[in-house]
Each structure stands twice: as structure tokens, then as C-alpha cells.
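Thread amino acids onto this structure.
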């Protein structure tokens, strides 16, 4: 089967594992892989592409523990404001703590000298009130280690640009 191309804005904090991602996947109903998969599923490509465009958080630690959940109420403007605040915090040269979506994602940065910052992220899965089954998954703390501010800033700025 042909791979299905997934686009959309994505911010990856951390290199490989551990990492935390904030992303809004976008599927193209004209993508040949998606068209083939839709045909095999017996639905239209538009139906197969479904509800793409919903923000998601994916977190993974080196011990195999992880979380992934949607943030259906998150608007692009909220993600852009978070990126702007993260850029300002990185430029400030001081310790910081920033939250997104009622603490679903909290990034803590501690200056680590030599233009580096030590990052930790807490993700707290958001559960829809109307969910039939509530899966208990509590907060997950992900230590991302010490990262170069310039590279991190470049990644956040590219994410912000994708949202413009």
C-alpha cells in the first residue's frame, strides 16, 4: 500500500526520544495513497480523510511510557500565541513555565548556560465529558534534557510561521 502523506503544522520538542509533539495533522483527499486506502475501505477519499485538522499532543519517554490525545477545542490562534510566548521566553534568557489548553501541556525551561536550556514538559490528557469510556491516564512528565536555545528557537519559529 502507498504511504499516506500527512501535512500540517507540527512542533517537536526534544530530539528523537524523549520528545513531545504538538501537531495538527492534515490529510489531502487527492493524495494517491489516501485515495487507494479509501477505495479499499469502500468510502470516498473525503470521508476517509475525516476529521483531520484537530490538534493533538503526543509524548514519549525513553522508558516506553507515553501519552497521545486530541485537543479539539484548541484553535490555531491559541497554538500561535503559545509559540509566540515560547519564543519570547527563549529570548528572555531566564527560567520560564508556559501552559497551553488549560494545562494540557506545560513546558518548563531552566537556563543551563552556554546558550542552552533544560526543558521538561508535563502533559495531562484531556478527557471529553461526553466520552462513553474514560480511560484513566494521568499526567506524564517528560524530561527533554538540555537543548541549544538557537536550534529550539529555530524549530519554534518555523512552527509559528506554518501557522501564519
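Threaded sequence (164 positions):
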Amino acid at each position: 500500500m502507498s504511504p499516506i502523506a500527512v501535512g500540517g503544522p507540527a512542533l517537536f520538542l526534544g530530539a528523537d526520544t524523549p520528545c513531545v509533539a504538538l501537531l495538527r495533522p492534515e490529510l489531502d483527499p487527492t493524495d494517491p495513497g489516501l485515495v487507494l486506502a479509501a477505495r479499499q475501505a469502500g468510502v470516498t477519499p473525503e470521508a476517509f480523510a475525516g476529521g483531520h485538522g484537530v490538534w493533538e499532543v503526543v509524548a514519549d519517554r525513553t522508558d516506553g511510557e507515553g501519552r497521545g490525545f486530541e485537543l479539539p477545542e484548541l484553535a490555531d490562534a491559541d497554538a500561535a500565541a503559545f509559540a509566540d510566548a515560547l519564543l519570547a521566553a527563549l529570548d528572555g534568557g531566564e527560567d520560564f513555565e508556559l501552559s497551553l489548553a488549560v494545562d494540557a501541556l506545560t513546558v518548563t525551561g531552566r537556563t543551563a548556560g552556554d546558550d542552552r536550556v533544560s526543558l521538561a514538559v508535563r502533559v495531562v490528557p484531556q478527557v471529553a465529558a461526553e466520552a462513553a469510556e474514560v480511560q484513566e491516564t494521568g499526567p506524564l512528565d517528560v524530561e527533554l534534557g538540555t537543548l541549544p536555545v538557537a536550534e529550539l528557537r529555530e524549530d519554534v519559529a518555523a512552527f509559528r510561521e506554518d501557522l501564519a
